[in-house]
Write a structure and sequence with these properties.
Distance between the termini: 28 Å
Number of helices: 4
Shape: globular
Low-confidence stretches: none
Largest sheet: 7 strands, antiparallel
Structural class: alpha+beta
Mean pLDDT: 94
CATH class: Mainly Beta
Number of strands: 7
Number of domains: 1
CATH architecture: Roll
Length: about 150
């Protein structure tokens, strides 16, 4: 179903790919819009137990695209170094494939907590108050990973 990586000698282990997902500050979610055009949206996210969590507005292109087609890919580049004199780049990158869905209730709260732990861990108490006050104004999604590849370019 998924293509094999052409340069297998550069392939990360699954554990390395997951570590990079946990450490990356942002990623790009790739969706197919209902008009047939691809849509790549950069966003903050949290990764836990084979799931990528992210949030957004209650309506918009991202929401409509996920409703129309839940299949997606998610890309991060966790490290890069331009080697101008060698006309090359060093990098660590990961692409995850799976299906997205909006989540609700306890699962929604868990996704928001994962994001809070990642980006604002030192403010958990005030962050939980913020979530309780504004959680109804946001949508939370999960991407359940079906396939993941990571690549080390060195």
């Amino acid at each position: 179903m998924f293509n094999k990586m052409r340069r297998e000698e550069k392939m990360m282990t699954k554990e390395e790919a997951e570590k990079n997902l946990k450490e990356a500050d942002y990623g790009i979610l790739a969706l197919l819009q209902d008009n047939g055009y691809p849509y790549g949206v950069p966003l903050n996210f949290a990764y836990a137990d084979g799931v990528i969590y992210f949030h957004g507005a209650k309506e918009g292109t991202k929401n409509r695209s996920i409703d129309a087609n839940s299949k997606t890919s998610f890309t991060i580049v966790n490290y890069y170094n331009i080697l101008g004199n060698k006309f090359d780049t060093e990098y660590d990158s990961v692409i995850a494939f799976g299906k997205c869905s909006e989540i609700f209730d306890e699962e929604k709260l868990e996704g928001l907590k994962e994001m809070l732990k990642k980006y604002s861990n030192e403010f958990m108490e005030s962050g939980m108050k913020y979530i309780k006050a504004s959680g109804d104004k946001t949508s939370v999604f999960k991407l359940e990973i079906e396939h993941i590849t990571g690549k080390i370019g060195r």
